[in-house]
Amino acid sequence: MKTITINQRFALENKIDNVNQAALYDYLIRYSPLFEGKLLKNEVYFVINKALISKEMSAFKLKPDTIYRHLKKLHKKGLIHYAICGRLNCIKFTEKSKEYFNQLNQL
């Protein structure tokens, strides 16, 4: 299990109205350095494993298909770029994510 925090101010400012989405977003930001990188559209994306995320976020009882839906919503909100490359789920952080990442580093 991994440590997860929810930045309520950031979540409200970015219209993340679901605590599970906020927790997933924190997980992605916090642990992305551990993910494999993949070149896609001449940019580096992080390869994510929904089953592993489900296991590591077990307190939230998220199934891989639920994680998929949350990723799509985070993409719609402009917080991540989400793409499927073959059978791989890939994400890239947007400019909005820099604010969250900077706040995380100030803790």
Description of the structure:
The chain has 107 residues and is of the alpha+beta class. 48% of the residues lie in helices and 21% in strands. It has one domain: Winged helix-like DNA-binding domain superfamily/Winged helix DNA-binding domain (Arc Repressor Mutant, subunit A, Orthogonal Bundle). The chain contains five helices and four strands, in the order ααββααββα. The protein has a four-stranded antiparallel sheet with strand order 1-2-4-3. Helix 2 crosses helix 4. It is globular and about 35 Å long.
- What's the total helix number? 5
**Helicity level, as a percent range?**
40-55%
End-to-end distance, in Å?
A: 20 Å
So what's the overall shape? globular
Low-confidence stretches: none
Tell me, rounded to a whole number, the average pLDDT: 91
Kindly name the structural category.
alpha+beta
Write down the CATH class.
Answer: Mainly Alpha
CATH architecture call: Orthogonal Bundle
Widest beta sheet: strand line-up: 1-2-4-3
Q: Give the percentage of residues in beta strands.
A: 15-25%
Fold topology:
Blueprint: H1 8-13, H2 19-31, E1 36-40, E2 43-48, H3 50-56, H4 64-76, E3 80-85, E4 88-93, H5 95-106
Antiparallel strand pairs: 1-2, 2-4, 3-4
Helix pairs in contact: 2-4, 3-4
Task: Give a brief rundown of this model.
The chain has 107 residues and is of the alpha+beta class. It has helices at 8-13, 19-31, 50-56, 64-76, 95-106, and strands spanning 36-40, 43-48, 80-85, 88-93.
